[in-house]
Amino acid sequence: MACEAWRGKLDAYLDGELEPAQATALSTHLRSCGACAADTLERVRMKRSLAAAGRRYEPSPKLRAQVALSVANPRRKIGWQWMIVAVPAALVLIASVAVNLNVRRENARRQRVYSELADLHVAALASSTPVDVLSTDRHTVKPWFQGKIPFTFNLPDLQGSEFTLLGGRVAYFAQMPGAHLIYQLRKHEISVFIFQDRGAEAASLPLGVAHALSFSVESWKQDGLRYFVVGDAGAGDIETLSKLLRSSG
What is the pTM of this model? Predict the structure, then answer.
């Protein structure tokens, strides 16, 4: 009965529509229930497939420009006297539409990136093996990545903090291999993703503080790497872990 009640809330959990207390309780349930965890993984895969299909048919910049031009210039005859007013107005309208489209596209891209990282976070926690190297010792976890990803990174000394390193695994985002570390804070798990800051894909990744679904996200670049901290802990806790990671860099 408990599983049936939770499964009815899985979609709301993945879409970030649950209250924080319910989201935390469901996250705890997923770590102890293999059936619900498997169901969650399947829904995450379907969600990502639908997102990929939606991007496949995204209008091109050329098509957007053509639509904006057709809206700004209706096919009807007007006197030359009106052209003096109409042409500048049309140019202003086109520029306004273009700027609005670019802002919308940028916001959609940022949200898409953060949502995909949140999906990776949920998928890892719902898995029976959330980490491939299980250790609280940073001197064990860091060497494990050698030869598995094309870069190295430093980990903070957590002694005296509330954070505990649980382990790590290799993650792939935008066809880039990276490190996925999982930290524990009280009843919360927090994912830290680290990727190289190279190429067009990496350059397009967003920076700063944001929210994705029911998760807080903080991202920055440092020493040629991009960091993403994702979790359902409070924004202050996410910021504290981010500062620890920055200091270790």
Answer: 0.62
> Which are the contacts of 56, defined by CB distance < 8 A and separation ≥ 6?
none
Using the Cα atoms of residue 159, residue 165, residue 168 and residue 172 in order, give the sign of their dihedral.
negative
Q: Tell me: the pLDDT tens digits for 51-110?
A: 555 555 566 666 666 666 665 555 555 555 555 555 555 555 555 554 455 545 655 666
pLDDT of residue 193: 95
Q: What was the pLDDT predicted at 21?
A: 73
3-state secondary structure the chain: CHHHHHHCCHHHHHCCCCCHHHHHHHHHHHCCCHHHHHHHHHHHHHHHHHHHHHHHCCCCHHHHHHHHHHHHCCCCCCCHHHHHHHHHHHHHHHHHHHHHHHHHHHHHHHHHHHHHHHHHHHHHHHCCCCCCEECCCHHHHHHHCECCECCCCCCCCCCCCCEEEEEEEEEEECCEEEEEEEEEECCEEEEEEEEECCHHHHHCCCCEEEEECCEEEEEEEECCEEEEEEECCCHHHHHHHHHHHHHHC
Predicted local confidence at residue 73, as pLDDT: 59
